[in-house]
Amino acid sequence: MSYRILREHTFFHGQSIHVKVIKREPEIPYSLHSHEFFELVIVISGTGINITENERLKVCCGSAFLIPPKVLHGYEEVDNLVLYNILIGKNILSASMVDLAEIAGFKSLVIDASHTSTIPCLSPLQLEKALVLVEKIKLENAGMVYGKGTAALVYAYLLQLLVMLSRSKEKPLYTEAYGNQRIATCIAFMEKNLNKSLSLTELSDQAHMSASTLNRYFRLYTGFSPVEFHIRRRIKYACSLIQTSNLTMEGISEATGFSDGNYFARQFRNIMELSPRQYKRIWTNQPST
Fold this sequence. Notes:
The chain is α+β, with helices and mostly antiparallel strands. About 45% of the residues lie in helices and about 20% in strands.
């Protein structure tokens, strides 16, 4: 049986940097196919089944895996599956593959004919760190300027991302099997309320924990306090609105629950390392309003 092959020239035509970030929102059922390039997948929400010639592997929020060239894979039973595909030219990793392969966790990151295990989930903190690097790759690609070291930075961020993901596979990862379900419930409540601030009291009520207990467990699982984590999620939502809506900065500030525009700008800069207006100029090539 013949399968579809996704070609490098289709995705990198005219590009000097053979690294590309594509957000699939949502991902759809996709029959078995292969690529001429590497594909790094990071799932940010929903569930599905990653299929190969030999396996059916469940993926969920935090799943991360690398599909090498020529390896068949696809998706079935998708349910609101949203993910990032980071496409990597087949020769990009050649100089670093030996070093990467020496990391104990790199092998479990790679989905190939010898892969026989499940795909574990990154912890919320690990996922947050991974998405920051994905965002940096996107921003450098979008604002590519000759003579500014853009290619070097893109490749540096990519290698940092692969090393981080590989190292994360060496440790016990956050999964529903032993993760605290109350924390998961609290995070789900946050995701439904990105348009307003939430107090620690409101969040502890959702988790059915005291404020001090919630704070302690939340830092254990995510590296942030509950309120800090919710602010980061609201800033991510603000990034999405900047890219996809016609709202003014004041409108985006209000839509993400920041009544004070200056406070919104400070939180945005703390997390994204640039101002909302700088972010908008990069993504829209338009002056911010």
